[in-house]
Design brief:
heterotetramer, A alpha/beta, B mainly alpha, C alpha/beta, D mainly alpha, C: alpha/beta, Rossmann fold, 2 domains, seven-stranded mixed beta sheet, four-stranded mixed beta sheet, 16 strands, D: mainly alpha, two-stranded antiparallel sheet, 2 strands, 76% helix
Chain lengths: 273, 350, 409, 319
């Protein structure tokens, strides 16, 4: 109902208005998952999974359906307690923390089936996604500030949803909701993002744009990315390293080029399908 | 939808001016008008969780009852022994002097708010972590249980009930007594409406909506959902507790089950009023409450012995033909014209 | 949208104010309108109906007889009813409405102490006299109300007589009073709690043992647990009070569980018609009553005649025998008419003063109010169900049949 | 405190509480199962459940009231003698109440309920609340406000030195409730309509796609629920009292039971119903009937809070 008072900024300007964390210069691991095991009843979802993500990297996780990728994400962000193992983020053990505490440490995720606030507009979805450890009680009980509004509008522009800013999130298409969810995460100024199949359901013609944006996110916003993805073209274009999971265990860790030709990986995929 | 448009402001001012002069225009109806404002307030307050936050509470009547008892007993306590006051066979008569009445009154109102807020805080911490049906059933059980507990507290009169302090004899005319309560109800409405209309525009209000739409998501974004849920329940309890205090004074006699913790009347009415009007919308509970109250009164007058049949049928009709509430009905009809327009601005922009 | 809302709101308010009715005068031409809120629905609807029938019958009778004369002019009576739905909150609202909107200046009481408690502050505030026939709680008369008049005996007197009877019988048998055990089970409402209080005071006075002091369960009509305890404790007297539903439940389940107590006393037997509906369980139960047709009172104004005449007239009209709730209610109207005549005016204040000086006898009994508005001129009676008939067994002055004690097993 | 110790040390008290609790629980389980059925299949919370129960009681009451004098007036013959044996006619009134309520439920569905099927829960809550309001007053107007009951003329059994009493009619209700629930289970498992009901409850759209007439299934389910309520009501009339305004307790309890047991789980519904009954009766003994409701409902709150607290350790919650 209130159009944005100022025309949206260009991509470049947007990134400047955002707080811009330094790119990790050292090769210190940002996320270190060690021997994480998680079972549900008798079903083993993850068995002694270990993986490492360096600051500033884009890492992909692939694997056939049911190989425990999403479970691993859930374990990392604290959706439920893990059985054993350790998860260290930014030098801090987080495996005993709740999902909210982990989010406050700027480790966020998106969901495979989108989760947006369906009966709120796209802009409102962003307004309340500000980093929570910096908000004051006063700002909670006031209307969104101009800074917040600008930032939200800028992010929508960046993600390509500015035209739909006043739409209810529930009225957006599945792909648009995915993008909105990504924008919500960015609003929160994360250090690291776990993306669960970011391109699923997105119009194939737009996928290249999305890959570019994800790279921009890493470059301009300084966000480390860990991505679950089925689309091999995306994986090959995006990731610098790839972990392949099967039956809840890490099968292989390698560069995209090597993975492509790895027999075990191909077998795992074919075997599962 | 969230913003307070010019029309909203006009409407609100119109309603307020109507509210200010109504007792002068219709002196015979002051009491009913007081109840109308109170109904609006409890419906609006319920809608804070039920509508905006999506937590369907059947137990908000607890705050109503607690507020009522607090207001009544703290008006008595400083001046008389509560035990003597409520004792069934007591032969003493008690009368408040003017100053006692009003100082006690103020104290009672204060404690009504405190008690309701404290109750909301304590139980909010315990049960607001549940969701969906479990939350609903838990609040329902809480409402019944607390009512029954109050019905067995001797010092508050147990099943005998508790009579409130009587307006000081000989002080001012009776019309002033009624105006005194009416304008409090009206003030409560103005306060409640303004705070809620403000709150739903803030990030707080948006977060409540977010909790309604996806609490897990909100939590995974780092939002402290518990804080928001409890705060909103407290806010709701604050207003409902004050309403309870006011209703206590208007009725003059508290029966634990039939007046204070009356889940079967006020308890379910606050939900029905919000839904009839359209829940989760600012004006919905207002319309719903006025509608409900009006029809209630009309039926009572004209359908003696059949009034509940009539009320029941009208509820069924509303639900069947206006599923989104009265307000939702008009919005849906309007939406068809809006959506035709909404595609055009995009083209115009390019 | 908002225009629609404003239209809606304005429409409602206009409609409501039109429909809710306009204030009318209490005396319109030759019709005097009394106001009453009675429980047509809700938990008290059984006795609410008895109350309304009592009012209606007296009104009908008076009007059929040509009305009554005040200062040479003949007036007729009408009653404006609302349904209080058995809730005090509603009753208080309706009292306001009757007085302020309908301009009623003479009120009749609702059914039950709780509702009367809710209405009394309202009538008091507006200085409108209220004659009530169904609010017996003692606490009604300790608030210093000046406009409340009750033509019935207060609740604590209901079953105190039963304890007296037990003491009397024990003395005859030569038993020590201290060995007597009494069990009490009452509903958690103002009236029944007062009944309990009166009985317990007597129990303490005689130094009997109160072995069971329970409240009847709220929603379900189930006193199985209480009766099991009674079976184990073997009291000499069981006292039950809980309006019509309580009486029905008790009579029913005492029979169902075959619990034997030598003396059982309860209230509201006749309004629950336990003697017809539960003939086995009700046999030899003692019932407290404000009135019985065999009491030898008759109308000063000759409206109905005596108790038997009233029963005949009532039964012809409504098809069932009147419980005392109806009789009281009819007499409340008689008291009003008497007061109107003596006041010679329809000024509420003058009528109130006339009521305060009431001294009359009706088929129901004598009516004379003390300073608290209580009728002190009539006693309570205890009836016993014998062969599915109510017989007066106490006080001895009226007793038509000797008490059957202990109840045969 | 004394009464709690007394309760646990007196076998006759324990026994009586258990028996009475089971009887009441059996009644609750009937009402609750109907509610669970309608809720599970049609996604409707029926707030008028208790009023259907009472209506069933009144139907049985009047069926008996009409038929008994009629039979008594007949020349005594073989059939009338059998029918007038204590307990037989009341027993027969149960299926009568059931079938009349079945028709009533079917009509109600055709007039109102079909419009609110598969809307959100609150819609059904409101609509059935309206029905409940209207039904209560209609019963008051047509059946009168007097407290009624159904006289079965059945005897009472005694155990444990006559300290524990079990009226045969209560035993009746327990047996009948069990038979009825077995019947319902078999019906849902074996009959064609039962299968259709289960299919619709799992996925209405898929069921409709494979040719199940969902509207018919809904109508039948709703009518089945009212029929069960009818049977329950007849039993309530025989054991407790009938009054137009005492339906709500049955609604509240069925609601509690269903929430507690979960939808579509008959054994759990029956178990929780029996459990609730026994708890209530025990509370009567331990804390006095005055605090019965307070105890039961506080217990419910406590159980839920406790379960939620345990779940919260697993970072889950009751949902």
């Amino acid at each position: 109902m209130h159009p944005h008072p100022h025309p949206p900024n260009s991509n470049k300007n947007t990134s400047q208005t955002l707080a811009k964390p330094k790119l990790a210069s050292s090769s210190q691991a940002l996320l270190q998952v060690q021997k994480v095991t998680k079972t549900f009843g008798g079903v083993v979802a993850n068995k002694e999974v270990s993986l490492t993500v360096q600051s500033g990297e884009i890492v992909a996780i692939i694997g056939p359906n049911g190989s425990g990728k999403t479970s691993l994400f859930n374990s990392i962000v604290g959706s439920y307690p893990i059985d054993s193992g350790s998860i260290v983020f930014n030098g801090e053990e987080i495996s005993s923390l709740s999902i909210r505490q982990i989010a406050l440490r700027k480790l966020l995720r998106t969901f495979q089936t989108t989760q947006v606030y369906t009966r709120m507009t796209a802009l409102e979805n962003l307004y309340i996604s500000l980093p929570q450890n910096t908000v004051s009680l006063r700002s909670i009980f006031s209307v969104p500030s101009k800074g917040t509004k600008d930032k939200a509008a800028g992010l929508l522009e960046f993600i390509g949803l500015y035209d739909k800013r006043e739409f209810l999130a529930g009225d957006l298409s599945f792909g648009q909701q995915k993008l909105l969810e990504l924008a919500m995460s960015l609003m929160c100024e994360p250090k690291m993002l776990l993306l669960d199949e970011p391109t699923a359901g997105i119009n194939p013609t737009l996928i290249n744009g999305l890959i570019d944006r994800l790279k921009t996110i890493r470059k301009e916003f300084g966000v480390t990315l860990l991505v679950i993805e089925h689309n091999m073209r995306v994986v090959m274009n995006l990731a610098e390293r790839i972990y392949c999971l099967a039956h809840g265990q890490v099968l292989v860790e390698d560069t995209p080029e090597n993975i492509q030709n790895n027999k075990i990986v191909i077998e795992a995929y074919l075997g599962a399908q | 939808m969230r913003d307070f448009t010019k029309n909203d402001i006009r409407l609100f001012i119109a309603l307020c001016s109507l509210g200010l002069v109504a007792p002068i225009l219709f002196p015979a109806y002051i009491n009913q008008l007081s109840f109308a404002w109170i109904f609006v307030v409890i419906a609006l307050s319920w809608d804070m969780q039920g509508g905006h936050m999506g937590y369907n509470s059947f137990g908000n009547i607890v705050f109503f009852g607690v507020g009522m008892y607090a207001a009544a007993s703290f008006q008595i306590l400083p001046f008389f022994s509560l035990g003597d006051w409520t004792e069934a066979g007591g032969v003493q008569t008690f009368e408040h002097s003017v100053s006692q009445y009003f100082s006690g009154y103020a104290l009672g109102i204060l404690f009504a708010a405190i008690a309701a807020v404290a109750t909301a805080f304590i139980f909010g911490n315990l049960i607001l972590k549940m969701r969906g049906h479990y939350f609903a059933i838990c609040t329902l059980a809480l409402g019944v249980a607390i009512g029954e507990v109050f019905a067995s507290i001797e010092i508050l009169g147990a099943g005998q009930g508790l009579s409130l302090a009587v307006w000081p004899r000989g002080f001012l005319d009776d019309t002033y007594r009624r105006l005194f309560f009416y304008y409090q109800g009206f003030l409560l409405f103005v306060l409640c409406f303004l705070s809620i209309s403000y709150i739903i525009r803030t990030r707080f209000g948006m977060t409540l909506n977010a909790i309604r739409d996806g609490e897990d998501k909100a939590e995974s974004m780092g939002l402290n959902t518990n804080f928001y849920k409890i705060s909103s329940w407290i806010l709701s309890a604050f207003f409902i507790g004050l309403c309870g205090a006011l209703v206590g004074h208007l009725v003059g006699f508290i029966d634990p089950i039939d007046v204070a913790f009356s889940g079967a009347t006020y308890g379910i009415w606050m939900i029905i009023m919000a839904i009839i009007g359209g829940k989760g919308r600012l004006w919905g509970p207002v319309i719903g409450a006025l509608f409900f109250h009006a029809f209630n009164e009309i039926f009572w007058t004209y359908f003696l012995g059949w009034q509940r049949v009539a009320l029941g049928l009208i509820i069924v009709i509303i639900v069947v033909f206006f599923p989104e509430g009265i307000l939702g009905f008009f919005q849906v009809r309007k939406k068809s014209s809006v959506s035709a327009l909404s595609t055009q601005p995009q083209q115009q922009k390019k | 949208m908002n225009k629609k809302i404003s239209k809606l709101i304005l429409g409602f308010s206009a409609l409501t104010l039109l429909l809710v009715g306009s204030a009318t005068a209490k005396v319109d031409g030759d019709i005097v309108t009394l106001g009453a809120a009675v429980s047509l629905t809700g938990k008290y609807s059984t006795n609410g109906k008895h109350t309304k029938n009592g009012y209606d019958l007296a009104v009908k009778r008076i009007n059929e007889n040509g009305g009554f004369k005040v200062k040479g002019k003949t007036y007729k009576i009408a009653v404006k009813y609302y349904d209080d739905e058995s809730t005090p909150a509603r009753a208080a609202q309706l009292a306001e409405r009757l007085i302020k909107q309908d301009g009623i200046q003479f009120m009749l009481g609702p059914y039950s102490s709780g509702l009367t408690k809710a209405m009394a502050p309202v009538t008091e505030n507006y200085k409108i006299p209220m004659i009530e026939a169904n609010g017996a709680s003692r606490s009604l008369f300790t608030k210093g109300y000046k406009y409340l008049f009750a033509i019935l005996t207060s609740a604590d007197q209901y079953l105190a007589g039963a304890v007296d009877l037990l003491a009397e019988k024990a003395k005859e048998e030569g038993r020590s009073l201290k060995t007597l055990k009494v069990a009490v089970a009452v509903e958690n409402d103002p009236f029944s709690l007062d009944v309990r209080l009166g009985a317990v005071e007597k129990v303490n006075k005689y130094k009997m043992k109160l072995v069971l002091d329970e409240k009847l369960p709220k929603s379900l009509d189930d006193m199985a647990a209480i009766l099991t305890k009674v079976r184990a404790l073997k009291p000499d007297l069981l006292i039950v009070s809980g309006h019509a539903k309580g009486a029905a439940t008790a009579a029913r389940q005492i029979d169902q569980f075959r619990v034997y107590v030598p003396m059982v006393a309860m209230t509201h037997c006749d309004s629950a018609q336990i003697e017809q509906k539960y003939p086995v369980g009700a046999e030899n139960i003692l019932c407290a009553a404000q009135w019985h047709k065999k009491l030898t009172y008759s109308d000063d104004d000759n409206l109905f005649g005596d108790g038997n005449d009233y029963v005949d007239i009532f039964t012809r009209e409504y098809g069932y025998s009147p419980p005392y709730q109806s009789a009281e209610s009819s007499t409340a109207i008689q008291v009003y008419v008497d007061a109107f005549k003596r006041a010679g005016s329809f000024n509420p204040q003058k009528v109130r003063n006339a009521i305060a000086k009431t001294k009359l006898q009706s088929f129901y009994g004598n009516v004379k109010f003390n300073q608290y508005g209580q009728n002190i001129a009539k006693p309570m009676v205890l009836l016993q169900v014998i062969n599915s008939e109510y017989n007066v067994v106490a006080p001895t002055k009226w007793a038509s049949t000797p008490l059957i004690y202990p109840r045969p097993k | 405190m004394d009464s709690i110790i007394q309760f646990f040390t007196t076998p006759s008290f324990l026994m009586q509480a258990l028996i009475n609790g089971m009887v009441i629980g059996a009644l609750f389980s009937l009402a609750a199962y109907g509610l669970a059925l309608v809720w599970g299949v049609m996604n409707i919370i029926n707030v008028a459940q208790g009023d259907f129960v009472i209506l069933g009681g009144y139907v049985a009451f009047y069926a008996l009231g009409i038929s008994t004098p009629f039979l008594e007036a007949l020349q005594p013959n073989f059939f009338s003698r059998i029918l007038l044996t204590p307990g037989i006619l009341p027993l027969l009134s149960i299926p009568i109440a059931s079938s009349i309520l079945f028709v009533f439920g079917y009509l109600l569905y055709k007039v109102i309920i079909y419009r609110i099927v598969s809307r959100d829960l609150f819609t059904s809550l409101l609509a059935t609340f309206g029905i409940s309001l209207a039904l209560q007053q209609l019963m008051n107007l047509s059946f009168g406000a007097d407290v009624q009951f159904i006289n079965t003329g059945l005897p009472t059994l005694f155990f444990m030195d006559d300290l524990v009493a079990l009226p045969v009619v209560r035993l009746f209700s327990l047996i009948l409730a069990s038979i009825l629930s077995v019947f319902i289970v078999i019906f849902l498992k074996k009959s064609k309509m039962g299968l259709a009901i289960r299919a619709v409850s799992q996925n209405a759209r898929a069921a409709a796609l494979i040719g199940v007439n969902t509207d018919r299934v809904y109508a039948f389910t709703f009518a089945l629920n009212t029929a069960i309520c009818g049977a329950c009501g007849a039993l309530v009339g025989m054991i407790f009292n009938l009054h137009p305004y005492i339906g709500t307790p049955y609604t509240v309890r069925s609601f509690m039971i269903v929430i507690f047991a979960g939808l579509g789980n008959l054994p759990a519904v029956i178990l929780s119903a029996l459990g609730l009954g026994v708890f209530e009766e025990s509370a009567d003994f331990m804390f006095g009937a005055e605090l019965r409701l307070a105890f039961v409902f506080s217990l419910l709150v406590f159980v839920l809070v406790f379960r939620n607290w345990r779940l919260s350790k697993k970072r889950e919650y009751l949902k």
